[in-house]
């Protein structure tokens, strides 16, 4: 297995963009630009997986790096949003609670059954919606564009519903896999 693949490189670049995103937002107070960068990090999420499958370069490293990039970007945006009040606090907390639930479940499955949760389409759709809403909250706050904040709310609420539906599905998967081991 080759660690140095194009999909892994894209995932690594996505991870390296997270500190730049935080620096733009929290260090330079360039909220809209940080929102745009978060949007790029989110929009490129599907590229690494698509290329891995298309180029037959699916790897254990890539299966680790891709979700790591997502979790780092999303959790950084949520914690930063709580600190700055650029993202509604209750929304950020609701997403963090779901992330923690999934992390504990995945860790439990890995430790007890030496298995992992299979990613579901609804989970991917939820992550895309959350990425979009977080980016739009920041772009809206940084540019005083009301319609973008309205779009952030619409996409965010949709994403939050999908996030929790997928969490319950993952919980069912977790129980089923633990019971079969």
How many discrete structural domains?
A: 1
Shape, principal axes of CA atoms: globular
Strand content: under 5%
Number of helices: 7
Low-confidence stretches: none
Give me the CATH superfamily: CDP-alcohol phosphotransferase transmembrane (TM) domain
Question: Could you describe the largest sheet, including whether it forms a barrel?
Answer: none
**Helix share bin:** over 70%
Number of strands: 0
Fold-level CATH name:
Four Helix Bundle (Hemerythrin (Met), subunit A)
Q: How large is the radius of gyration? A: 17 Å
Order of helices and strands: HHHHHHH
CATH architecture: Up-down Bundle
* Top CATH class: Mainly Alpha
What does this structure look like?
With 181 residues, the chain is mostly helical. The protein has one domain: Four Helix Bundle (Hemerythrin (Met), subunit A), CATH 1.20.120.1760. Helices cover 85% and strands 0% of the residues. The chain has 7 helices and no strands. The protein has helices at residues 6-27, 31-43, 45-54, 60-84, 89-113, 121-143, 146-180. Helix 1 (6-27) runs antiparallel to helix 2 (31-43), helix 4 packs antiparallel against helix 5 (89-113) and helix 4 packs parallel to helix 6 (121-143). It is globular and about 50 Å long. The mean pLDDT is 90.
